[in-house]
Amino acid sequence: MAEPSAPADLPEHVQTPQDGLLPAELRAWMLLLAATGAIEQQLRAVVKDALGISHDEFLVLCLLADQPGSGLRMTRIAELLGRPKTRLTYQVACLQHAGLVTRQSVCGDKRGVQVTLTDKARRALSEASVPMADAVSEALARTIGPAQREAMYGLLPTDSCPPDDA
């Protein structure tokens, strides 16, 4: 297993514009995509074991869990996840069949459907949160070393970056 400070699959130094064809922002974006892919791969098995659902269904639950109100409309979930509405309809139906979400018509809008977490889903997410958070941390530790972290900081506005001595 590669050490967190020197991920095996990624460059060991922050490249300068003279090092390659891509500007720093695009290299940083590619690093972010690699980290996201590693997290998704690590989470797939944990989510399946802990919740018995697919990774895409898990993403729907996460969106709903992070809402202060009663839920989200299907169209908004599709927008946030960048998924086709037809695929989302199938995923929500699977979640509803598992007793993890409810669907109801939006008052005053015949076509609008609101999706809400059930108490069962809230308990399941709460119970599974530690192993899922650990999976995210492990994936990031394997993927993002100091050089990659520095490259990604380059994407952030200067007031968002950590102090130099951090």
Describe the structure concisely for a colleague.
This protein has 166 residues and is mainly alpha-helical.
What share of residues is helical? 55-70%
- Which regions are unreliable across 5 or more consecutive residues at pLDDT < 50? 1-6
Largest sheet: 3 strands, antiparallel
Shape assignment: globular
- Gyration radius, rounded: 19 Å
Number of helices: 6
Q: How many domain units?
A: 1
Distance between the termini: 26 Å
Secondary-structure element order, as H and E? Answer: HHEHHEEHH
- The fraction of residues in strands falls at 5-15%
Mean pLDDT: 82
Give the C-level CATH assignment: Mainly Alpha
> What is the name of the CATH architecture?
Orthogonal Bundle
Stated plainly, the CATH topology is called Arc Repressor Mutant, subunit A
Protein model, in words:
The chain has helices spanning 24-51, 55-65, 74-81, 85-97, 119-143, 146-153, and strands at residues 72-73, 101-106, 109-117. It has 166 residues and is mainly alpha-helical. The chain has a single domain (23-155), classed as Winged helix-like DNA-binding domain superfamily/Winged helix DNA-binding domain (Arc Repressor Mutant, subunit A), CATH 1.10.10.10. Strands 1-3-2 form a 3-stranded antiparallel beta sheet. Helix 1 (24-51) crosses helix 5 and helix 1 packs across helix 6 (146-153). Mean pLDDT is 82; it is low at 1-6.
